[in-house]
Amino acid sequence: MLLVVCSVAELWSTDRPLLVRYQGEWFFPVFVEYSEKTFGGDFDTPADYLDPYVRSRITQGGHWALYAPNPYGARTIDVYCTQPFPAPPSARHWLGTDDRGRDLLAQLLYGLRTSVFFALALTVVGTLLGVAAGALQGFLAGKVDLLFQRFLEIWSSLPELYLLILLSAFFTPSVGLLLLLLSLFGWMGLSDYVRAEFLRQRRLDYVRAAQALGVGPWRIALRHLLPHCLSPVFAFLPYRMGAGILALTSLDFLGLGTPPGTPSLGELLAQGKSHLDAWWISLGAFAVLVLTLLLLTFVGEALRDSLDPRKAMR
Predict the structure, then answer these.
(1) Domains of the chain, with CATH numbers?
(2) What is the tens place of the pLDDT at every residue in 228-279?
(3) Which residue spans traverse the membrane (predicted)?
(4) With 90 as the cut, is the pLDDT of residue 181 above it?
(5) What is the pLDDT of residues 40-90, one digit of tens each?
(6) 305/68 Cα distance (integer angstroms)
């Protein structure tokens, strides 16, 4: 449910109306950008829907507009706020603002969406690489397994954080660059689980029976061994997502993550560190982060219990 809510964050928090009825026509500002002249303004620039003049033009004369519950977007700076930034929680900003004047509730919604989808993509890529690498090691075994293990020992000894710092000096920070670099290191732990399961399963009687019936080795690996080895993989996925969220938050906190201006939980934690008197900044980001990781832990424990073969036997 949390994933669904943050996936459609524009329905809950945006500085554009969801729907406008003006002069007998329908407008959808949340999807289409309209100029101020469209609603009777003076300038041919994108309409600022927080401007009291634009709002009055939209709502007068029987016209109406449907706004989101929180009328601020991820990059919206409330220039009409009467309090200095960071502003504390109020009726105008339910959770307050950050030091740039951006609504904190909008930052948390969009920042959580960035973190969750980044962690989901990292989990999918890392799982595919880890399952493929572990399956090859466990099924082929012998010299292939030995050489691959030596490669993993060398690859895992590379300093991941130093590589991030080095690459951030040469390339523009982006989510894609982070996903690529973290994916190169995030599959090794999972490959060990799959490798161990393949090594154990390949010695069981049903594999020998399939070999005696003339079934090909790759058919045995894909249709018999792989399904039996996916149970620990599924139970491990929520924890990998939690690790991905923590990794992005930590890198954003250090300034090595997403590009500046991108909504991020790590950036909010860094702002809270810089503004200790603005307790609402760090408190909101910390609460969202703890809640998300707690829910992922519950999901992981439930998957582990449901896929436990000892409980199935009982």
Answers:
(1) 17-72 (no CATH), 105-311 (1.10.3720.10)
(2) 788 778 888 888 899 999 989 998 898 888 888 888 899 999 999 999 889 9
(3) 116-141, 161-190, 233-258, 278-303
(4) no
(5) 877 888 888 888 888 888 888 778 888 899 999 988 888 888 888 999 999
(6) 40
Question: What b-and-e string marks burial along 283-295, b requiring 16 or more CB atoms within 10 Å of the CB?
Answer: ebbeebbeebbee
List, as one string, the DSSP characters of the chain: -HHHHHHTHHHHB-SS-SEEEETTEEE-TTTS--BGGGGT-S-SSB--TTSHHHHHHHHSTT-EEE--SB---SS-B-TT-SSPSSPPP-SSSTT-B-TTSBBHHHHHHHHHHHHHHHHHHHHHHHHHHHHHHHHHHHHH-HHHHHHHHHHHHHHHTS-HHHHHHHHHHHS---HHHHHHHHHHHTTHHHHHHHHHHHHHHTTSHHHHHHHHTT--HHHHIIIIIHHHHSHHHHHHHHHHHHHHHHHHHHHHHHT-SSPTTS--HHHHHHHHHH-TT-HHHHHHHHHHHHHHHHHHHHHHHHHHHHT-HHHHH-
Q: What is the reported pLDDT for 1?
A: 85
Is residue 300 very low, low, confident or very high in pLDDT (cuts 50, 70, 90)? Answer: confident
